[in-house]
Design goal:
Length: about 325
Amino acid sequence: MRAMQVTAYNDPLSLQNVEMPVPASTEVLVRVETCGMNFGDTLMIKGTYQEKPPLPFTVGMELAGTVTALGKDVTTLRVGQRIAAYAGIGGLAEYAALPASICVPIPDNMPAVDAAAFLVAYGTSHVALDYKAALQPGERLLVLGASGGVGLTAVELGKVMGAEVIACARGQDKLEVCRAAGADHMIDSDTDDIREIVKSLGGADVVYDPIGGDQFKAALRACNPEARLLPLGFASGDVPQIPANYLLVKNLTVMGLYWGGYARLKPSVLTDSFRALFDLYSAGKLKPHVSNVLPLEQANDALDLLRTRKATGKVVVQVS
């Protein structure tokens, strides 16, 4: 089968012919249709991600496809069933052998492109806003990096949860995408003063931050008392240092979130979240925004769209 593999760190992915995997007793074989690309994939290629698979490996954290074979102990899935999975790696290949426990049946009305764009982005935002921050109706939510893959889902979910949403992104074109997703207020991170605008709107009760750096520092100083801050990543390349005295004075809470870590730490957090999200999708309350769909051979171009921040929402690779 064909697979786009990392053969050396910091090199482009290369298209390889590799052996088709054989599912173990608790695994299923999946014919991969689509693979959602994530910023974490770019870090994995550099060898700087939280997890570092041995070389060579096939990149691609989330995928959607159809079950084609079952391990002898699998009873929860059936051949021909459409599933999505957060696999961590392996999505940019024509087939993947996956633990049955991580495969989530997808609604009949969900296209494969939507399914591959769904788990990581919506899952991250839902666990962050619901499970961690307990966002309440009427609270003011500030979303940094709001036009990106996870940021846009935070805007959308924030509105579904009844919050007043402030979207911060680079440039008016990206801010219009945020407006279409339901944002109430827009901040251009290239030209606007984040701190002053957020304070003029009444301050932030919850801050959702995949960016870090100066934007986090500005958001921290625009928080209301008892606000919750969610650092989810550091796309700026700058990991901010948080002055503890500032947390003390305003009774602030900082909640780190490594969403993928719950797959081992507490899997029910993810599975419960997925069920709630698929219900919202089936009810027509969520709609993934996919800006680009590229073929497997152009997976490097797909990753470049993330590195250069030219994409809005999700980038998906059509594998088969």
